[in-house]
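pipeline/complex-builder :: batch 7 item 3
reading input block
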Amino acid sequence: MSFINYSSREINCKIVYYGPGLCGKTTNLQYIYAKTLPEAKGKMISLETGTERTLLFDFLPISLGEIRGFKTRFHLFTVPGQVFYEASRKLILKGVDGVVFVADSQVERLDANIESLESLQRNLAEYGENLSTIPFVIQYNKRDLPNAVDLGYLQEVLNARGVQSFEAVATTGDGVFDTLKAVAKQVLVRLKQTQRAK
Amino acid sequence: MRPPFVLFQEESQRLSALCEALLRGAHARGVFLLHRDGQVIAQWGDLPLDTTALASLVAGAVAAAGGLAQLVGEAPFPALLHEGARRSLHTSLVGDKLLLVVLFDERSSPALVRLKLKDAHRDLLALSEDLAARPLRALTPLFAELSDDDIDDLFGES
Ligand SMILES: Nc1nc2c(ncn2[C@@H]2O[C@H](COP(=O)(O)OP(=O)(O)OP(=O)(O)O)[C@@H](O)[C@H]2O)c(=O)[nH]1
Ligand SMILES: [Mg+2]
């Protein structure tokens, strides 16, 4: 849930990177961490297994600048992608303000993407949200690999709603900030709308 | 999307008074009021500490403990104690949105912290009820003025 603090003049929002195991969620955060100035980022926390797979979450707080004298801070989380961590994924989605679905473009991960997207919808529903009520973008990652599926086909299978989507190579950073900015912007626009509607 | 959690200046001051009293009464090193989603709402104490990181980890621990409680057929555990050789953390749920974390060392004890938390909880609950009852209209000053251009400006550079 976003938190607006008039005393410290900050807007805080929570963004979750969701997707199947090894699709590149942690790599997205590592790239953002590496390319963000020290004063605009906090410590990155990775709760990992012994083999660098996310166990509970990665966490990276960054600030993207000021709006009308308010600092905008985004708390970026990744979920663990491995199938058996479903309970943890659900916990991390609690209070989410925006979601990035990171898809793995490789042909052999097509089913894993579909299952993960379904798990996202199921878990959001438990909090009374769905992919149309919440700011949501898709990132097609690993575009550099020779076994990457044709973009049109991925769009057809994973993006029936036609939400904003980006091609990415998280290891080199291609598309990483475009994805982040798009979801962050959607969150702020939505925040403004919810405030107007009242 | 759920409405944001908003805290105005005078409410921050009320919180300060309340938590400073807890800090002193419990002889604690730090008191942190967190939102359950992992945001730092307010903090007191003099230890240099990365509170943003603390908040995300505590929220994760509480969420995991809540999942465990459900699994064994129990209501959410009202408090968690992480007891160390020198420093310890006591985390308690305040209503369904807030977490109160007390960091203490050998100058205090779990029993003293628990004792002092009773008053703090009562006052915090009263305050969060006031927050919830506040008219929605009061939330708008920042966003009513915010234009699409303001948001675009933030993302202007690449
Ligand atoms: N070739 C290529 N490899 C990538 C890309 N993005 C990530 N990887 C690699 O994929 C592997 C898994 O990346 P992670 O970021 O750890 O994946 P994850 O989604 O966090 O995985 P879990 O924590 O298990 O859910 C790593 O070896 C990365 O270097 C990419 O765009 N191209
Ligand atoms: Mg990971």
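note: Chain A touches chain B through 51 residues (CB under 8 Å).
queue -> next item
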